Amino acid sequence: MAQVPEGGSALKFSKSKGDWLRDALPKLVLSPSVAISMIFVYGFILFTIYLAFSDSRILPSYGWAGLQNFQNLFTLRAWNIATINLAIFAILYIGICCALGLLLAILLDQKIRAEGFIRNIYLYPMALSFIVTGVAWKWILDPGIGLEAVVQGWGFENFEFNWIKDRDMAIYTIVIAAVWQTSGFVMAMFLAGLRGIDQEILRAAEVDGASTFALYRRIVIPQLRLAFMSAFVVLAHMAIKSYDLVIALTNGGPGIATTMPATFMYSYTFTRNQMGVGSASAVMMLMTIAAITVPYLWSELRGSKQ
Amino acid sequence: MIFTKTARLLTTAAFACAAMPALAQEVEVLHWWTSGSEAAALNILKEDLARQGISWQDMPVAGGAGEAATTTLKARVSAGNPPVAAQVLGMGVTEWATEGSLGDISVIATEEGWDAVVPEAVKRFATDDGKWVAVPVNIHRPNWLWINREIFEEHDLTPPTTWEEFNTVAQTLKDAGVTPLAHGGQPWQDATIFDDVVLGLGGPEFYRAAIHELDPEALGSDTMKAVFDEMRVIRGFVDDNFSGRDWNLATAMVVNGDAAMQLMGDWAKGELLEAGVTPGEQVLCVPAPGTEGSYLFITDFFAFFDVSEENQSGQQAMASALMSPKFQEEFNLIKGSIPARADVPSANFDSCGQQAITDIAEANAKGTLIGSLAHGHAQTPAVQLAIFDLVTEHFNSDMSSEDAVEELLHAVEAAQL
Amino acid sequence: MSIASSTHRIARFALYGVLALFCLYYLMPLYVMVVNSLKPLSEITSGGMIALPKEWTVAPWRNAWSEAQVGVEATGMRPYFINSFLMVIPAVAIATILGALNGYVLTKWTFKGSTILFGFLLFGCFIPFQIVLIPMARALGMMGLAGTVPGLIFVHVVYGISFSTLYFRNYYAAFPTELVRAAQIDGAGFFTIFFRILLPNSGPIAVVCVIWLFTNIWNDFLFGASFSDFNSQPMTVALNNLVQSSTGVQEYNVHFAGAIIAALPTLLVYIVAGRFFVRGLMSGSVKG
């Protein structure tokens, strides 16, 4: 990444009214966005935190409930399941998307003939919401009519793929569908990163006799750092927000085996009219988000300054 | 002079014409009836109102038995922009009334004498502190057992009237290689069976005590344990693939002969008719085992929100149209449910509908007309869904009945906090 | 033929094989949707999700487009298309322009604390929309924007800025600062530099940003369902109403046709702009 200049308006002219405007203008331009974030992101987060300590049920109310909502939250098995599910989901989803995206990008970077066509096929799922593809996925994963039935129909009687009906495995079917949606997008990011690498360095390394594997591991992948950062931001936010997907595929089932924090939060806030507990779960989600993203963004942004 | 007079007359006439639409009302209605038959049924109301010069502003948000619409409703009320009327299920009316968000349509209710024609159990939801705040449009019965007649005749079986008989019949079918029960493993469907078993094994008094009053003694009783035992037995009678299946696909299994029975509400009739099957002929309808004489019910209400004065006459007109016997009959003939008014003749309904109308009159008289837990007529959503969680968790796992009862007590307690 | 070239051939063959295999994975759901949208309902319910239609029909498509029941009236999805466009286009345009300006300030006019401000703005990417629903409803009510198209645009702009700022900031970071300084010495002002120098070179990242925002906003259901009015409901709500039914008959073929119709604009955007998309990502935003 190019250097971010220290004080972009480095050239200082003698002080005058025009200069004041010149100095203030960038800040003025930025200020609406900052103000909007202040109110509609941070203000609402504060509001949510307040609700988490209130006795709100169907709509916000302002009676103080102390830590009651959090105590309730932690005794609920569904919340426990939701947090474990999010951990499994996020790790697998981000990991597999990055690995698959990188693999496909490297494969597509081998001067493939129909590259544009194949790329579009990999990329298109990102254009669709799960309201659109949910039913199709549900059918594919359903052993009675989907993949299992079809493969068995081909003569492979022993083929089994009934994860979506299995309490322990259902969360992995959600990973499969989620990876399907975003891995192509991650692929595009990595492909772009690969295309940006200086070919001279690669050639020089090749001349030095480095193996293809070493070439990628030592030279190419380290250069994709910014691509990883963008991918991480995109994937992490999708993992935490994953709601449509779960609703469309399993609606939290079998039983409550695939409950996720986002579905939990929605259910308690809007369906069960336990807004206090729902807000408490939202606060936990926000804290998780902050715990993961703040250090990461901090190190990245500091890194880019040096 | 004549010219001026005519002109003046014309102007007056024109003014009168112009004034008409100004008087005309608009009602914005939030609902989740978007599928063919449901929407067609609602369209009757729209046309009724159009004839009175009231225009219908349609605000449909479908999904999850009104879950999505409920969220929309919350956003609309929070924004200070509630719809004129919204479709709400029983306990929802109570909650919105408690929140103070509903208006008052008692004037028209008194004028038209609704008190005399609406069953007491239904009326309890539609009124708040003596005021009418909502209008019931139908009564669905969730505790039906649908039976594929051909399969039953083939195996020489008679419709079961108790859970014990059900178990015997189902075992016979299972031994013969037929899936006894078509079921979709979604929480509300599991809860629909749970409703039937609690009512069937425990009877109406027990159902009231355990489910409506949340009496810890009833909830922790041996009867409740027996209920979970029966749920476990029923689990053995559904096919391996039940999890997540939509109810209508389960109905299709009964129609196609892939399964012998289904426990489902009377909306299954729509699927039967679509498949060219006459309810009561090829597919029989009987009350769920052991529930004969009792009537679980679900009613869709239109709740009237506290809106500005100019919208209130629209509300009154809509409420009146919704409660007219003619509308209640036409609507419910299409919808598959029965009228919420007791004074609508049953002649035009199919045999299952006629039976329902007879049964509900009997249940109303005996005091065994009971709001259904599975469909939001017994508990607040918090408690209702906490019970769903447990029932569905038990049904999908190998949890013992003892543990289930204990967890039930715990979950109910936690949800009430 | 040398051994080297034959191993090379095998490797190429394997390479194409792997790529083709992944094509199947990505195409599978679309295949299921398209195939089943062209069948009569009876063929679907009698089983056979993967099979090609025995009897081809476009009736489900016609039905979903203009005849299906999505509300009280059987209007199909047609009327909702315009609502979506009225909301999406202004929202994307405003969020993109604001993002570009923010990116410009955050890279070329940095000041003390500007990096922290960038991080501050970026956090908005992560906020789950369910959290803001009720307070946003209140805010829209107070601003008199409840249930209006401008209200929906506003909401989408608010939560779109984080992403557009991220994209443009990363892109402009790679843009040579010398050019900006040179222009500055020549006496060009803040906006002149932006409009004359940066904006004309922002094509690729603008494509990325527009695709991203367009897709997200077009596909949004939660805000669309909550903050719209009877005459501003977007496409996704119509699709939801078509597909979801509580106690009605489910016409899967019509559902699939409707789903594809609802997705067509975003699919088109991806296919038409797909080429520029990778180019846009390449030209700076994720380059090392």
From TrEMBL, chain A:
Compartments annotated for it: namely: Cell membrane
Specify the ABC transmembrane type-1 domain's residue ranges.
Answer: 83-296
Q: What is its main location?
A: membrane
Q: Where is the signal peptide?
A: none
State the membrane topology.
Multi-pass membrane protein
Q: Where are the transmembrane segments?
A: 28-53, 86-109, 121-140, 169-194, 224-240, 246-268, 280-298
Please give the InterPro entries that the UniProt record associates with this protein. Answer: ABC_transporter_permease, MetI-like, MetI-like_sf
**Does Nucleotide-binding appear among the keywords?**
no
List the Gene3D superfamilies. Answer: MetI-like (1.10.3720.10)
Recorded hits in SUPFAM superfamilies, A to Z, give: MetI-like
Which Pfam family is one of those matched by this entry?
BPD_transp_1
Q: What are the protein's UniProt keywords?
A: Cell membrane, Membrane, Transmembrane, Transmembrane helix, Transport
Task: Note whether Plastid occurs among the keywords.
Answer: no
Its family? Belongs to the binding-protein-dependent transport system permease family.
Q: What is this protein called?
A: ABC transporter permease
From TrEMBL, chain B:
Q: Where are the transmembrane segments?
A: none
Q: Which Pfam families match?
A: SBP_bac_1
Localization in the cell: Periplasm
Question: Is the keyword Transport assigned to this protein?
Answer: yes
This protein's record includes keyword tRNA-binding: no
Q: What does this protein do?
A: Part of a binding-protein-dependent transport system for a sugar.
Q: Which PANTHER family match?
A: ARABINOSE-BINDING PROTEIN-RELATED, BINDING PROTEIN COMPONENT OF ABC SUGAR TRANSPORTER-RELATED
Q: What is this protein called?
A: Probable sugar-binding periplasmic protein
Q: Report the source organism.
A: Pseudovibrio japonicus
Species lineage: Bacteria, Pseudomonadati, Pseudomonadota, Alphaproteobacteria, Hyphomicrobiales
From TrEMBL, chain C:
List keywords of the entry alphabetically.
Answer: Membrane, Transmembrane, Transmembrane helix, Transport
Does Membrane count among this protein's keywords?
Answer: yes
A Pfam family (short name) is: BPD_transp_1
Topology within the bilayer: Multi-pass membrane protein
Give the ABC transmembrane type-1 domain ranges: 81-273
State where the protein is found.
Cell membrane
The cross-references to InterPro entries, in alphabetical order and at most eight, read: MetI-like, MetI-like_sf
The record's family statement is: Belongs to the binding-protein-dependent transport system permease family.
Protein name in UniProt: Sugar ABC transporter permease
Which species is the source of this protein? Pseudovibrio japonicus
